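To illustrate the input format used throughout this study, we show a single complete record. The first block contains the structure-token representation of the backbone; no residue identities are included at this stage. The design step must infer an amino acid for every position from geometry alone.
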């Protein structure tokens, strides 16, 4: 499988797990087996990818646009969340963003330290690092939005 295909499948898996497999089945009208094929790394499923309409439906319910973000990153594009996607009524300062960023980075470094102790990073360790990296990215996006608000 190509590196791009593998990358998209990992983000598809993150999307399904973010929404929850049962909810993803309901929202998409697809079975667990079909959804599993979309992110399976096995050779027989290498050419199967989630349809765009299904991605859009699941990303509406997800906490983060995993597949859309992955596609943008592959093209070198950076995404920003719109005001309507943010929590309403929440007044967060840039200071709290810096604290959240520091905490997330510390969690990523702790996960990295644990993963590299034996000299190699296993597939499961890489998945955990990827999850932490995605969480760090979300904090950075929120921080960017708060800074943009303050710059107005």
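Output of the design step:
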């Amino acid at each position: 499988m190509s590196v791009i295909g593998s990358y998209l499948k990992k983000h598809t898996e993150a999307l399904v797990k973010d929404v929850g497999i049962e909810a993803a089945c309901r929202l998409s009208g697809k079975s667990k087996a079909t959804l599993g094929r979309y992110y399976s790394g096995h050779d027989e499923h290498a050419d199967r990818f989630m349809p765009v309409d299904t991605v859009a439906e699941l990303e509406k319910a997800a906490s983060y646009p995993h597949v859309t973000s992955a596609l943008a990153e592959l093209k070198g594009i950076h995404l920003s969340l719109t005001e309507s996607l943010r929590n309403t009524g929440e007044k967060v300062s840039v200071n709290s963003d810096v604290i959240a960023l520091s905490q997330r980075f510390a969690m990523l470094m702790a996960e990295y330290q644990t993963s590299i102790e034996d000299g190699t990073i296993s597939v499961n360790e890489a998945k955990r690092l990827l999850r932490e990296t995605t969480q760090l990215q979300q904090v950075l996006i929120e921080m960017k939005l708060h800074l943009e608000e303050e710059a107005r």
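Structural context for interpreting the output: Residues 83-88 have pLDDT under 50 and may be disordered. The helical segments are 3-19, 21-28, 32-39, 52-61, 66-75, 94-116, 123-151.
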